[in-house]
Every structure is written in structure tokens, then in C-alpha cells.
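Usage example:
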Amino acid sequence: MLVLTRKSVERLMIGDDVMITVLDVGRGQVRLGIKAPEGLRVYREEIYLRVIEENRHAAEAPRNFLPDWEGNGDED
Amino acid sequence: MRIENTKLGDIEIDDARIVTLPEGILGFSNARRFIVLDIRKGSNLKWLLSVDRPELALVVTDPFAWFHDYRMPLSDSDAVALAFREADDLSVMAIVTVRGRRREDMTLNLRAPIAVNPRTLLGKQVVLSEDRWGIQVPLPVTTPSPSGAIDRKVAGSR
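Running the assembly step on the lines above writes:
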């Protein structure tokens, strides 16, 4: 892993198109500004991992999962 | 065309209704083409089947039918991905995780809904940057609105 030290307001370039700015360094917290091309997806890692995990769980839905209440009130 | 699905068997689908998610959904990035099928007529719960991966079938629902204050802000890059124009409607689906047969065993992922532009049939799993809506939100006890709402809601503020 590449390790770099940056101060507040200093930037990183990743390739030609991605710019990361250190906006603020506080107590145990860093605020970053990210400028990236449209279409490049930027996620907080923990959210990214949780969504992947949840999608995988959701894919395990059994064929006959419909519970008894389903259909109550939402059918004409 | 006919597709094969491990859960649901051989199914004839209408090619004109195939939705393409160029980025796939997170964790299944190589499944790009999907079709939405009724589980039961009139139900708010639907199958989202992968056309490409026979083992992939997810349960989805219209989040607006269950949560009337739900909002899905569409970012500029999302709008580009969906080839979204101002006049377009947007369909939104929340993925349902089924852990058992009881109501409390079912949760909605409201943090990462799938948005589809019905005009272009392009879709994207959008991860909302605000944490107002959770990934495992229990289905409300209230009876949902009639299905069909999925097509008439437009995303919230840009």
C-alpha cells in the first residue's frame, strides 16, 4: 500500500481524473472532497460491503417464500 | 426468449421488458440483464430475475408503497447512467431480504434501491449517501398501497 502524508487543503491525484482533497482534519476524523468522473462509483467502504452482503442474503430467498399475510389487502 | 432459473424453472419472458443494469448489482456485477415478474397477481412483491445468471432471483418491492415519505435523490452521475431526462418517470425497487416466513423476517434495503428508467430500460443500484434509510428495514405492519405505484413515483430532489 502506498502511504502518503497530506495536510489540510492538500490534494492527491489518482490518474488524471480523480482528485481527492483533504478538507479538514479533526479529532480522529478526516473530511475528504472527491472529484471523480461521472460513472466512477465512490462509496464508503463499510456501506459498500454491507450492501454486497445484503444483496447476497437477498439472493437466497426461497422459491415459496410468500408469507400468509401477503395478499391481504393488496389484492382487488 | 426462454430463460432458465434455478428457483423458478424455465420461464418465457418478453424481451422488450428486459432491463439492463450496466454495472450489475453490488456483489453480482456480471449479472446485467434482469426481468421483473409477478410473484402473484396484485402483490407488491415481485421477482427480479437475472437473465444471465440462472441462480440469481431477488425479491423486490416498491418502497413508496410501504414508506410514503421515502425519497430517492438521483445524483447527476445516476441520471447519466440511466440516460434520465426531466420528463422521464423512474421506477424504484427495494430489494427484499427474506429470512423466514414471518413478516418480521423480511426486510427492505432502502439504502441501496434499484432505479430503472422505463424509457431507456436502463437501471442502476443506487447507494444513497445519506444514512436516513437503512439496509435492513423491517416491513411495516401497515397494509401496503396497491401495486402500480412503482411506476408513477419520480425520484426526489436532485
